[in-house]
Amino acid sequence: MSKKLWIPLLSVFVLIAGIYTFLKLYPPLETGTIASNLDQTLYLVGVGNRGLSTIQLVNVTVNVEEAVPTETKVQTCDALTGFTLTDDYRTEELNGCGVRDLKDVVIKKGTSPAKTYAKQDQGTVTKQDLIYGVTVKNDLPIHTVNIKYKYFGIPLRLVVELD
Question: Counting Cβ atoms within 10 Å, is residue 25 exposed (0-12), middle (13-18) or buried (19+)?
């Protein structure tokens, strides 16, 4: 192949590798609140998006062996209401929070927990400020929550150590 073809191909490869490396070093999905029950079989992990686009949650597993949890739900609440740690989701709305299946939730941009905490400290948080909480229930104690998601179609993973 000629140099005219190699240079653009190499440039595209370097660009893609650079974007992927950047996303690995600075993932758009970040954690906030972490809460559990006493026997550590139920965890709520607050997550938010500090990226430029929405995040689609794909899958959640627990512990090192990546076991499938008994139940996984996502709470979508306003920052004034906050989360509720429960495994009873018989109603669609729980304390003002929407409770949905993992695959039905798209995390909007600008929902970084750090920004929300700063707004709470300043007293400027409103009902329009959304927070997201991934609730995971398992039969055995949970030590790690593995959240797989897509950002710009790129599969990424967030591992939350809970011990």
Answer: exposed
- In degrees, to the nearest 5, what angle opens at C-alpha 160 toward C-alphas 69 and 162? 80
When pLDDT is averaged across residues 136-158 and rounded to a whole number, the result is 93
The residue length of the chain stands at 163
Whole-number pLDDT of residue 64: 80
DSSP state of 142: P
Question: What's the whole-model pTM score?
Answer: 0.85
**Paired sense of beta strands 71-78 and 130-137, if any:** antiparallel
Helices vs. strands in the chain: H and E counts, helices first: 2, 10
